[in-house]
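hey all, quick one before standup. I had two proteins in the batch that finished overnight and I want to keep them in one place so we stop losing track of which output belongs to which input. First protein below, input sequence then structure tokens straight from the run.
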Amino acid sequence: MSTYENRGFFYFTSNPLHGRWFDLDPDTTEEVIRAALAKELNNGQEIDELFIADSEGFATYFCSRECFDFAEWEDFLEGLESTHLDHEVIMAYLENCGSASISDIEDSYLGEWDSDEAFAEDLMEQTGDLDKLPDNLRYYFDYEKYARDLMINDFFESNGHYFRNC
């Protein structure tokens, strides 16, 4: 399983010089970051506002307008510990949909295929929809066009991984 380094550059005031990088693991809470910045850069005084200037890894998808959603991040990390999904699959989803819970990603993930057409063929076999056509017409079914239509409305692909749309 590949790993992603989850880090964020947090700062206070309106000056990113009053900040530093933090590893964003389960032990690094908002309170821990505030306390560390207060001690290291603010003479121990409490920090009112906390901002994020940059991030790496999964954490990138939990940032919005210089704010970091610690509650969603903590929920995400809890799910990450118990999921069967590879980190590559999770990143493929996040790159297309933004922040999400692990359970949402698990519910949306369908598997890995070599092409949209292979995905469409497998979907037809699983649903049994092709069996509803008379035998003499099955030969004419166009998987390429069917796959194109599936990918327009209902599904997306990222690095060979297929998901239901966000």
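OK second protein, same deal, sequence then tokens:
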Amino acid sequence: MIVAELFAREHALFRGFVDRLELDLSQRREGARDAVSEALRMLLPALDRHSEIEDIVFRHPPDLEDNASRALTEVDAQHAELAALRDEILSALEQSAEELPFTRLKALTEALIADLRVHLHTEETRLWPFYKGALGRTVEAVVPIDLGKRALALEKELERGIAAISHSSSRSDADS
């Protein structure tokens, strides 16, 4: 598989998760908290693994163009912001429903959604154009074999995760 295809597919899957999270957040049903929590517990580790692969692919700027350096710096800053938000959300998910009101979980999730949408767009439009060479190579040629296998496993996990949260949300809707 070509790296650009892998990243495009993963970004599409992340957008699917985000769309599902937005739908769950908009619901005023009893199971919304559980659906959002479950989705976040799947999404956050997947983002970490995706970021690990990106770090390898984008480790070395393709050239020293100012625009490439600025785009890489911008994406790195976004990764740091997403990591801090991820840590805050994971900490929040450890709290009980009494300790963490749904409004707080919703606010954190909405912040993640907004930041992630901006980040995916920034990578695709500002960073990827500078990495056509690396993105045009096979995953096996760019990342270690075990990481390439983990990338493919990540895709399957994301697909199963979206299906699972969609199914559990549909089931909860029917129960309401």
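Flagging for whoever picks this up: DSSP finds seven helices and no strands in the chain. Residues 57 and 134 are 7 Å apart (CA to CA).
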